[in-house]
## 1
Amino acid sequence: MTEPSVFTRILRGEIPAEILSETENVFVIRDIAPQAPLHLLVIPKTAEYRDVTELAAGDPALLAEMVAVAKDAAAEHGSGDFRLVFNTGSGAGQTVFHVHAHVLGGDLAEGSLGG
Ligand code: AMP
């Protein structure tokens, strides 16, 4: 058995975090180390998928739900415009292998993909 991810532990209430919103399948929290004025994480409740490529292959409807939840959260907590980032693989900066989307908003560098 692998250890539960930090996000599973948040969902279970073992690590404190404010759940900003949730659906049956997805929940939203603020990133603990924000990289933009608005930095939310949209996370499936299931830890079955390690990254977005596994999720897209295994449950595309859940990926679509994450995008819809990101849109609503960006509108509720920011201006409505947002950047959606899925770090995929440790070489790309992924540290938690329980798929999640970074929702970045606010004063993002123009023309940059860096966020
Ligand atoms: P990634 O590096 O793409 O795997 O993203 C993992 C993200 O989870 C990082 O941006 C972390 O800052 C964030 N993170 C880790 N632990 C927590 C926590 N307890 N509460 C909120 N965000 C967290």
Note: The CA atoms of residues 49 and 59 lie 9 Å apart.
## 2
Amino acid sequence: MPFRKDFLWGGATAANQCEGAYNEGNRGLANVDVIPHGKERWQVAAGNRKMFDFEEGYYYPAKQAIDMYHHYKEDIALFGEMGFKTYRLSIGWSRIFPNGDEEEPNEEGLKFYEDLFKECHKYGIEPLVTITHFDCPMHLITEYGGWRNRKMIDFYKRLVTVLFTRYKGLVKYWLTFNEINILLHGPFMGAGICLEEHEDRYQVLYTAAHHELVASAWATKIGHEIDPNNMIGCMLAAGSYYPYSCRPEDVFEAIKDNHMNYFFIDVQSRGYYPNYALKEFERKNFEIPFSENDREILKEHTVDFISFSYYASRVSKAKLDDVEETSGNVFGSVKNPYLQASEWGWQIDPLGLRITMNDLYDRYQKPLFIVENGLGAKDEPDENGYVEDDYRIAYLREHIKAMKDAVEIDGVDLLGYTTWGPIDLVSASTGEMSKRYGFIYVDRDDFGNGTLKRSKKKSFNWYKKVIASNGEDLD
Ligand code: BGP
């Protein structure tokens, strides 16, 4: 059997994309609330268009999302029915600390997640918790400027101390920052940063990166001290870059692009800045804002495992003259002429998952955890909300096969696999509901209409079988 006996099959969501109830339970406003649906979404997420509050004339999908805040029992029961061994979810930071800089946490927020974790355990589901999945209390942005400010490390430390203490015995698997590399591409979404005109983008973003990296190492330290059983991982928006051709220039371009991604994980996993980054910092006159014991914290508190999202591979080319670009998760790349793409232009490459797994495992020699993978597609439900989603099954089947090969043939150590959006939820990149990933259909459209009724798609029973057979039965 290729997968371990205790292989963690399941699904993954993020607070801001499913919870809704943005102003209930004393929750404070967060960056993720004010990122609208529509063509300005990415401008806001990237911090190019400052939107620090709700504005007239925009629709904000995170406000209600799929209202999991009120439906979680029903939703977790469905995950239980599919046989989930794990459920990845994230904590809304502003539920726990509404402003982010309070001394005392908000009990209602803490209780909400405690109940939710207990609900998971009823079904034998192990929670896998992302401490922050893109969200940052708005007050920390307006008062402190988000992660460009070193004080964020202390606020984050306070948050994680509260979480590790309160949920000791309920949660064992933790991820410090979702897709930490998004910070370079969508700084408002990833780090609560809108660049001011006088600011140097490079300096600000790598300063914020240092703060997040140090905060992540602190979380690892604190988490292990509070409970040595805790397993704490980093999280990368992965997808290896291929050279466009075997021209050495293209091959080298791919090395450089891969470095940009690995940078964060190199620090989180090895405990020090890689030379290629130090050299570039020198050229750019960037001095890492090391404080007293940062080096030691980074060095001594590296992650236990490497988690990542994988939707597609990417392509690098030295000369971008006659090539097409394509979109992809978090950031696009040159289009690969050998691959098909989803309706949103994300290229489909199951073997790329095996390649990415090999790259990461060779590089870090730590267990991997695939915490996002899936196909965003338009579904057409019948009158009962049933969807014949063979395209989704086909996508997942091929990716699971590739991951099986990576484990069985290449010997990669893999802890688990959680598909993205086991229940339809709001898309991070577009704010749409119609970009659906789920095994469970949710009656809700792109503008907030619908009954929120949940119904099973064809893929629901298929995934149930996959889990029950520990990945043997993929038909
Ligand atoms: C990742 C995020 C998720 C998720 C997923 C799918 O970047 O971690 O939050 O949304 O991608 O992307 P999208 O929702 O844009 O289709």
Note: The two ends are 17 Å apart (CA to CA).
